[in-house]
């Protein structure tokens, strides 16, 4: 594999110039980046002509009895497809089904902070896999 490169001096600094510019200098092939555990051919696709409604909410805590059910009712009332949740205040990370909704969440070691995402049926089908990063990032 031979490539023709020319060296030029710019401000007395040697620089390599590629006569045929590529997106990534020195590589002939590229791999498409996708989320962990997902393959582009097997990932579900959302129809592009459909609109989706997304919102975020600081729930202050989901540790109180009945609070999660109220959040789900509000999501249905506002006809949201995806609802991002802040200050969930649950420990560890996980997912659960709530009727037709799917909740994924990520928390810490104590009942502080934590985030979650609530999906409706159509958006949950598009979720292939997910990875909890911290109590602030899913």
TrEMBL record:
Keyword entries, A-Z: Endonuclease, Exonuclease, Hydrolase, Nuclease
Domain of life: Eukaryota
Originating organism: Plakobranchus ocellatus
A GO molecular function held by the record: exonuclease activity
Name of the protein in its database record: Endonuclease exonuclease phosphatase domain containing protein
